[in-house]
Amino acid sequence: MYETTGQMTIAQARQQASTLFLAKVFNWMAAGLGITGLVAYFTASTGLAMTIIGSPLFFILVLAELGMVFYLSARIGKIQASTASSLFIGYSVLNGLTLSVIFLAYTSSSIAGTFFITAGMFGAMAVYGLVTKRDLSGWGSFLFMGLIGIIIASIVNIFLKSSGMAWMISILGVFIFTGLTAYDVQKIKRIGEEGIMSQGMEMIKKGAIMGALTLYLDFINLFLMLLRFFGGSRD
């Protein structure tokens, strides 16, 4: 998808490919976050958030979101890029509907403040993942085990309703998702360097969507973990 000149080295060509691919990934991620934010704000401001949280619709939306993520991950190699794009946008909309309920628990100013804190932390770790010479692939299994751990602990705490456990989950979650941000950005950078830009526009688009979804989930989960610490309660 790009041409190299006689003066361009292989390393420079790889860097150019990685930069172009990363730009597509971050553009899609930003679009997803923008859609989610707008939908969440509109849903909360119109009162629909109260309807969602007080009905089975909330759990239906959560299950639909999980289904879309699993479907995208499992079928990305077989579906069309346009389908992957539509699923990503649909997921962003559904997540906006479910996240609208945070406006019922926290003040708008504290939500905005936490968003900017999250953006700062995410940005710092993304830059680290891009520029570090250290191979972060060894972090993957450790961070994945930690992620499974906090998911299990969160499910258990639904029944225990322990505030102490909830705080511990949030603390661990902040460390896990900041680590995952650096790990995932480096992984996506390597995908760009290893030739996806030469595999055709269809593969580029699908690769960018999956990369965007990965970073989108890192950002959203980090935001929710930090909201427990920085969110101002409406009570």
Automatic annotation (TrEMBL):
<keyword id="KW-1133">Transmembrane helix</keyword>
<dbReference type="GO" id="GO:0005886">
    <property type="term" value="C:plasma membrane"/>
</dbReference>
<feature type="transmembrane region" description="Helical">
    <location>
        <begin position="84"/>
        <end position="105"/>
    </location>
</feature>
<feature type="transmembrane region" description="Helical">
    <location>
        <begin position="207"/>
        <end position="230"/>
    </location>
</feature>
<feature type="transmembrane region" description="Helical">
    <location>
        <begin position="111"/>
        <end position="130"/>
    </location>
</feature>
<feature type="transmembrane region" description="Helical">
    <location>
        <begin position="166"/>
        <end position="186"/>
    </location>
</feature>
<protein>
    <submittedName>
        <fullName>Membrane protein</fullName>
    </submittedName>
</protein>
<feature type="transmembrane region" description="Helical">
    <location>
        <begin position="142"/>
        <end position="160"/>
    </location>
</feature>
<dbReference type="InterPro" id="IPR006214">
    <property type="entry name" value="Bax_inhibitor_1-related"/>
</dbReference>
<keyword id="KW-0472">Membrane</keyword>
<feature type="transmembrane region" description="Helical">
    <location>
        <begin position="48"/>
        <end position="72"/>
    </location>
</feature>
<feature type="transmembrane region" description="Helical">
    <location>
        <begin position="21"/>
        <end position="42"/>
    </location>
</feature>
<comment type="similarity">
    <text>Belongs to the BI1 family.</text>
</comment>
<dbReference type="Pfam" id="PF01027">
    <property type="entry name" value="Bax1-I"/>
</dbReference>
<keyword id="KW-0812">Transmembrane</keyword>
